[in-house]
Write a structure and sequence with these properties.
Length: 569
Amino acid sequence: MNFNGWIQIGLFSLLVIGLTRPLGGFLVAVMEGRRTWLHPVLRPVERGIYAVAGIDETREQGWAGYAVSMLVFKVACFLAVYGLLRGQALLPLNPDAQAPVGPDLAFNTAISFLTNTNWQSYGGESTMSYFSQMTALTVQNFVSAAAGIAMAVAFVRGFARRSAASIGNWWVDLTRLVLYVLLPASIVIALVFVWQGVPQTFAGALDVTTLEGAKQTISLGPVASQEAIKMLGTNGGGFFNANSAHPFENPTALSNLIQMLSIFSIGAALTNLFGRMVGNERQGWAVFAAMGVMFLVGVAALYGVESQANPVLTAVGMDGSMGNMEGKELRFGIAGSALFATVTTDASCGAVNGMHESFLPLGGLVPLVNMMLGEIIYGGVGSGLYGFLLFAVVAVFVAGLMVGRTPEYLGKKIEAREVKMTMLAILCLPASILGFTALAVVLPGPVAALSAAGPHGFSEALYAYTSATANNGSAFAGISANAPFWNTTLALAMMIGRFLFVIPALAVAGSMAAKTAVPASAGTFPTDGPLFVGLVVGVIAIVGGLTFFPALALGPLAAHFAMTSSTLF
C-alpha cells in the first residue's frame, strides 16, 4: 500500500459524498412528479407515453398490484430478449455473422439481464450481434435498473406514508426513472467515454498486422452507449469478454474513475432520497454512514491483501515488491483494481477491471462477502437500499427485544407480519447460494466445469452462485459455465435473488404504509445516530458471519492456509 493509493480511495469517497445530496434531491423531485429543469423538454414525451400505453398517472397501486405489474413487465421482457437472441442471425446489424444463441444460453442471458444481474456465460464480441447488444441487452440495462430504483422508492413510501393503501404506480415510476434520470445521464456519460477513446460504431471487426508481424482481429461496435448504462444502472454486462479490463471499454484512469462513480452515485443518492421522503434527512445520512463504514472496511482489507506478494511466487524467486499484480491492469494498479472490485461487488454491478480469480484467497474473500451480505453497501440501483432497510428492521427488532419494548422504525410499529416477511426475504439468499453450490460440487458434470480442484475450485462454484443470487454478475473467470446445468441453475438463482427477495419487501412496504405513526417518547430507539449505525452494522456482520462462515472456511480461507503452507490449491 502507498500514499497514492489512499489518495485515490479518499478522492473517490469524497466525490461520492458530494454527489449524494444533489442527486438525491433530483430523484425526489422526479419521483414526486415535481417540475425539474428537464421537464420543458421531457414532460410532453412523458404524457405521450402515458397516452399511448393507456396509463393513468394519478392512479396508484397497493403493494400486490405494484408487484403484479412488475412481474408482468418482467415476463414480457424475458420473452422479447429470448426471442431476439434465438433469432439474431436473421436480424440486421450483424456484421460479423454471429449465429443464433443456443436455448439454454439464451434462457440464462434473458433472465440475467432482466434481473439486473448481467451474468455472461459467453464472450460478448464473439457471441452477440450489434443488434442483440443494443435492442436486447442495452434496453434491459435501462429498464432493469429503473425497476430496481422504482421498487426502492415504493419501499420508502411504505415508511413515509401514514394510513395509506397504496405505494405508487409501477408504470409511472418506471417511465419517469428511464426518461428523466437514466437516459439523459447515460447520453452524457457515453459522450465522455467516446472522448476518452471508447468506440461507438457500426463498423465490423478490423483485421490488422501487429508490430511483430502477426495477424490480429480487433472487435469494434456501439460500445460507449452500452458502457454508460452498464455502469450507471449497476448492470455490469460488458460488450467485450474482458469487461472493463478491456481498453475499449475502460481506456484511461479518468474513465475508470467515472465508471466507479457511476456505479455508486444513484445507490448513494437513494439514501438521501430516503431521508427526504420520510421527513428527516438525518435518517438518510445514518443509512449512508452505515454503508460507508462497511465500504471502507472492505476496500481497506482488499487493498491491504493485494498489496502483498504471492508467497508461492516469491518462493520460486519472483519479485513481489509490486504486490499481487496477477490479473490486474498496469494502467489501474493495485489501488484502482481493489477499489473497483470493492465498488462493483458492494453494488450489484458485476463489471470488473481485473480478474477476481487472480486475487489472493483473502482478496477474493472480500468480493464474496460483499455479495453474500446482499450487496447492501450502496448496492445495486434500488436493491441496495431496500435490502439495507430490511436489515434495519431486523436491527430495531433486536433492539426492542433487548429493552423489552415493541420495536419501532420511523414511528411505525414493527410487528409479526413485517418481521416474517423480512426474514423470508433475507433467508432466501443463503438458501439459494448454499443449496446450489452444494449441488454443483457433488455432481460430476458440474464439477468438470471448475478449473481447479480443492478449495479454490469450491470457491469458483460458491462465487458463481453468490454472484447470481446477489444479482451481481461478476465471476471467478476460470469456471466454464456455458453448459445446460450451469446456465439453468444460475438463471434460477438469479430469479430467486431478485423476485423472492423483492416481493416480501414490497409486502413489508404495503404493511408499513397502512400503519399510523406513533409519537416518539423517552423509550424510542433513535435511528439517526451512531448507536443505530453500530447496531445495524453489527447485525449485518453477525447474520452474514453465522450464515456463510462454514462455506467461506471451505473455500477462500482453506485456500489461504494451503497457499501459506506452500500446498497447491
